[in-house]
Specification:
heterodimer, A: 356 residues, alpha/beta, eight-stranded mixed beta sheet, 19% strand, globular, B: 290 residues, mainly alpha, two-stranded antiparallel sheet, two-stranded antiparallel ribbon, 13 helices, 4 strands, 72% helix
Chain lengths: 356, 290
């Protein structure tokens, strides 16, 4: 018996924790599974999406819910690990949940076979292009690189620029962006000289790659990324005396620290942002969470809004919900007007702005 | 429907068991603190995935994944021959970084951070293991074969020499044993099974990318080996089951959304700490980690 006392203690601890925290859900609630990275290096991204979704659930429930039924988010933290993501999805499906929202490409891609097999609806809000188009049950409400790259390249269209540099994150988001930017720049002018490189979120010294890019004397540099690394990158581009056009993706608004770190070096820089994000959304969010919303919260909000609308019209039949969303083409949410492609990509309208 | 979730957990236990007993052979039985184990797992996963996506039959992918990883095992054994303890750990850690960097940056082959999606499910003589129950049976069969081979190895005279190398390498050399060859074999066999586990993982998850094979992914495997007890295959099995299943009941606890992520991890870590505090040698450990 002595040998087994540690496993017994472990089991007792787990049972006590379950008894203390277990709360049975009220009946007649529509449950939506939320699969986000809430700890680890992607926690900030997961938190933004989750808070946006929680805000939407709150607003919809206060307005009477979906056909009189409240929505409840069942939250899981997949830590950006596909194995955990699959465990969580399988478990929630076994509990009867049929609608899911989540993010991060590598986990969402691993979930697609299960989504197909079980015919559950998944909003996989990540940049990987393979997330949609495999089944009608997956949707992607995210910054689509090809769409965002278009408005970035538009900035140089009426300017006499024959050489550009492209610096992107070395991840799926950055690489898809890089390809889209190269294609679009060539489409605009086949003779444009392009120099490109990648960097890592953990990098702090970019002078080698910047020097390499500057050798071609670019008139514009496109940068794609987020977080502290991007802020330092902008600063170092300026320190190496680049004074041409600096054009960024959504990074500076996704993580506002980018502009704080870059300081004066970011002045005049172009960057993309959501067109529809309004002061009303910001203040409602601040009231609930006592802090400024990250821009990804906007996408999490939209997911719940569009799902609630589909559930209201089609009931809980996943086939009907998917078909309803795919047939919408355009969805006018409270804050966001979304275009929905036949592949299931839900495009948030984006515009370019300039750092003053 | 609930069984799908259980089947998934059992498949993970099977894959982790192969990975952990392979590491146990190197760390527990031979005394090689190999932090590069995850690199062999990565090599196996990529070889199998790339060949399967190129249309090769699954069983060839599986065997070549093991053989490919084994060759890397031999490759690692040569420069690390004279290293021990912390130094060996550092050298093998460097090896895992090299493999990670190759997977990340050789984009023409591995697609880099975009990863390899759509890896086909295994098929054998026309039967496709697309159903998870079938995949579970396949995993159990491969895990059982791996277990019995490694058990046979450690119980054999060769296994006893490995333990002698672990306990006193100089004494083993004095008795005429070629310790370099023994350590190379141990590392290569360990790598072979890590490669097999990598192949199973790739075909089960159907998507791999370089971040599936970082040092973070090795930590649970090392935890299994240590908690199970060094040089104990029985302990490894029990620790694999406990460590894979332990986080699951925590999912049923309705933590507030603001602490859901860290709270589950804190409880998980606390339970592991408790186990190590009261069982420093692990459940059935025969030797201490030096």
């Amino acid at each position: 018996m002595k040998k087994y006392w540690i496993p017994i203690i472990v089991i007792v601890i787990i049972i006590i924790a379950v008894v203390i925290f277990y709360k049975p859900a009220p009946k007649e609630v529509i449950k939506i599974g939320a699969l986000y990275p809430l700890s680890g290096s992607s926690a900030a991204v997961g938190e933004q999406f989750l808070n946006g979704a929680l805000l939407a659930v709150d607003i919809i429930n206060r307005a009477g819910g979906v056909n009189g039924r409240k929505i409840e988010l069942v939250i899981d933290d997949h830590q950006n690990d596909p194995k955990l993501g699959i465990s969580e999805l399988q478990q929630r499906i076994s509990e009867g949940i049929k609608f899911f929202i989540g993010t991060n490409s590598r986990v969402m891609l691993s979930l697609i076979p299960i989504v197909k097999e079980n015919k559950v609806v998944l909003f996989a809000d990540s940049s990987h292009p393979d997330l949609t188009g495999q089944t009608k049950f997956t949707f992607r409400h995210a910054i689509i690189a090809e769409e965002n790259a278009k408005i970035m390249v538009d900035v140089i269209k009426d300017k006499d620029i024959s050489s550009v540099g492209i610096l992107t994150f070395n991840d799926d988001y950055g690489l898809v962006f890089q390809k889209a930017l190269v294609d679009l720049v060539f489409t605009h002018n086949q003779n444009t000289k392009i120099s490109k490189d990648t960097y890592l979120p953990t990098d702090t010294d970019f002078k080698t790659i910047i020097t390499k890019i500057l050798q071609n004397k670019p008139g514009a540099i496109f940068i794609v990324g987020q977080g502290n690394a991007m802020g330092v990158l902008i600063k170092q581009i300026y320190e190496l005396r680049f004074r041409g056009l600096l054009i960024s993706d959504f990074g500076p608004v996704m993580t506002p620290d980018v502009l704080k770190i870059a300081g004066d070096a970011a002045k005049g820089m172009y960057y993309s942002k959501f067109k529809d994000i309004s002061n009303e959304f910001v203040s409602t969010y601040e009231q609930k969470f006592n802090k400024e919303p990250g821009n990804l919260a906007f996408l999490g909000y939209g997911d719940i809004e569009i799902l609630a609308a589909a559930l209201g019209k089609s009931g809980e039949d996943t086939d009907k919900v998917s078909d309803y969303i795919l047939n919408l083409k355009t969805f006018n949410g409270k804050y966001e007007k979304m275009d929905i492609t036949s592949k299931g990509d839900i495009l948030p309208p984006m515009v370019m702005d300039q750092v003053k | 429907m609930f069984s799908a979730y259980l089947i998934h957990l059992l498949i993970l236990i099977g894959i982790y068991l192969i990975l952990a007993i392979a590491l146990q052979l190197a760390v527990g039985f031979t005394g090689l603190l190999n932090i590069g184990h995850i690199a062999f797992y990565c090599v196996g996963a990529y070889i199998s995935a790339l060949l399967a996506l190129a249309g090769w039959p699954w069983w060839i992918c599986l065997i070549l994944a093991g053989i490919g990883a084994m060759l890397f095992g031999f490759l690692l054994a040569v420069p690390t021959n004279k290293l021990k303890g912390d130094y060996l750990a550092l050298a093998t850690l460097g090896f895992s970084f090299v493999i990670y960097a190759i997977a990340l940056n050789w984009t023409e082959l591995t697609r880099g951070p975009l990863g390899l999606p759509g890896i086909p499910k295994p098929s054998l003589f026309g039967f496709v293991f697309s159903d998870n129950l079938a995949f579970l049976i396949l995993t159990i069969v491969i895990a059982a074969i791996s277990y019995f081979i490694i058990r046979r190895i450690v119980k054999s005279p060769f296994g006893r020499v490995l333990e002698a190398v672990r306990d006193d390498e100089l004494a083993a050399q004095v008795l005429g044993k070629n310790t370099f060859r023994m350590k190379s074999y141990a590392l290569a066999i360990s790598a072979f099974f890590a490669g097999i586990a990598g192949s199973l993982y790739a075909h089960y998850i159907t998507f791999i990318d370089p971040s599936s094979f970082t040092l973070m992914q090795l930590i649970p495997v090392i935890a299994i080996v240590i908690i199970g007890g060094l040089a104990s295959l029985k302990g490894t099995i029990i620790a694999t089951i406990i460590l894979i299943l332990l986080p699951e009941p925590l999912r049923f606890i309705g933590f507030p959304s603001s602490i859901v992520g860290p709270a589950r991890q804190i409880i998980y870590a606390l339970i592991l700490l408790l186990i190590l505090l009261y069982k420093p040698k692990g459940f059935y450990g025969k030797v201490e980690l030096e």
